[in-house]
Amino acid sequence: MDAPQGKFSHRVSDVFIRGFLATMRTLPYEQRITLAGKFATKVLAPLSGSRRRIRENLALVMPELSHDAVEAIVRETPETMGRMLMETYSPDEFLARCAAVPILGPGLEIAKASQAEGKGGLLVTGHFGNYLAARGAFLANGIPIGVLYKRMNNPFFNAHYVEAMAKFGEPMFERGRRGMSSMIKHLRSGGFVGIVQDQRINNAPVMPFMGKPARTALSSAELALKYDIPLIPVYGVREPDGSYKVVTEPAIVRSTPEEMTQAVNASLEAQIRAHPGQWMWTHNRWRDAGNATSEDRARGKA
């Protein structure tokens, strides 16, 4: 792999991140995961200004929450993100735990049935809990899940982050024309791919998410329809004791890309409302959706 090129500030930031991760990995597993979550909540969140974004998003889509409920989510959201990062960089220990994670719902059997037919499948999720728990659990059951991912702005961090993510299942497909082409070949050959559905995609159609219009890509539904493979909602849900369960749902009913994508949105929304502190509220999820054209609104029925 060629050495990444980037700004000096990116290199400095990555040196700090690498040093932090290396220091944390000297600690026992449970201690490092807990400490990473607390560091993200008490240090990184205030410094980054992410608390303001979380409060703004909650006020937009969950205005009924009390002040105390909002502040609990403001604390738990960065904790979830910090724990997930440390779990990503503790692959051996985390994968060993994933092998024992219960997989609830019909998703695993649906995937195995598709695999037995020589077909692949799409597992769709969100920035919720830790989707690596789901990838690790499926991997332990003989179904490696490749991933379509978005390149990080910091190229130095991106290089080792993608390498760490690949330990939970391969191949990895970078979002873009080349990555999409490789991913389609993988699906056509009977492979499985996980897609994180809740990213805002510029110029995507607008449809409701958490009761507000949000630009939402139709690509996962379009691929499922084109290649006649199941589209299965899957979530790695963190339990109160820090362990995980993998919650799967029946494959999205085949219809139109718009209807299927709206069903995916509704599925993720239900998980967020049940466990609001486990979703990444730092996203600018609803930005620009108010500028949707009439064509956008017609496609997404927003």
UniProtKB/TrEMBL annotation:
Keywords: Acyltransferase, Cell inner membrane, Cell membrane, Membrane, Transferase. It is found in: Cell inner membrane. The keyword Acyltransferase applies. GO terms for biological process: glycolipid biosynthetic process. It comes from the Bacteria. One of its GO terms (cellular component) is plasma membrane. This is Lipid A biosynthesis lauroyl acyltransferase. It comes from Shimia marina.
